[in-house]
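Dear colleague,

Following up on Tuesday's group meeting, I ran the structure prediction for the two-component complex that the binding team flagged. I've pasted the input sequences exactly as they went in, so you can double-check that nothing got truncated or mislabelled along the way. The structure tokens for the whole assembly follow below. Feel free to forward this to whoever is handling the docking comparison.

Inputs:
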Amino acid sequence: MPFYEITFETGRSSVALYKDDAEALAANGEQDRRARAGEPGGPLGVPAERVKCIRVYDEHPNEWNVEQTMSADVATKEVGALIKNLKDENGVVLLPVLAMQVQGLSHPMVSSKESSFDSNFKMQEKKELALAFEGNS
Amino acid sequence: MYEHLHHNDEFDIDGPMEVHHATIVFQRMSQMVTDYVLGNSGTVLPPASWTMGLSTTVVGSGANMARNSVWSATVSGSNVNEIGSTTPAGYARQTIARTIAQGGIDWNTSTFDNTFSTGGQSTAADQVTFGAFSGAPNPNGANSWAITEGTTLNAGNLHVAADTAALRTFASGDTEKVTATIKAG
């Protein structure tokens, strides 16, 4: 079953597992309808949210590079770039900071986004769903 | 700062609305403190990211969740199960990055409470959203949430868990919000 990254108009997001696109659109169409009607979004009673974007993945986007590996050539370039960014005016790097940033190369989530509607994940989505539910703009 | 991590009453995990409920720190998290944080272990390692799941199981006081529980296995007489593991209906685990105050969903800058008896270092994760559900997941009914790792439902290590404020059952169109706050003291 495919995974779906749902981005709400608030900038919040969720990952969901549906059997197909139709199920994804039905579930999120109902959440979107509730938002337009001013209804609660769930049993907690918080307001529903309009749905801005739905990205589709073949697997959970958290599964990006689960082996936490990288080719030696790419690692050489990436670590070199980290050292270049970290070194001070004397050409010295703090090794614990470098080690932490090297670990970060394997994180599945992005560390910064240009827009709050951008994906949270490094994995490339397979496609983006056209939001065909009523009232979507 | 983690020397009392194994004491449930000193490692508070707050659920939605900052209401305090039963909590548990599982063996894997304790082991990461002793082996990875203190000893720089190369074999007991944190995952590349945390994930959060919802469980049908209440934390309880030893009979429901045990310190050495893992998902979906009878351990010490307890069995912790995840909602949606038979029919997800929109349920999936949510990712919390192993970063502090970056662009995605991660942990906020921690704060310190110097109170001798109850103080400690606290951090809250950004709120995560489950759903929208397309119908009732099977099993349905979240009694607790858990910080875990990996995305395969009903599988993997548990790290910490806390009861939800009330049983949450889900239907078509529902979402669920959870904010994890963890205090180590």
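Residues 21-37 of chain A form the longest helix (17 residues).

Cheers,
M.
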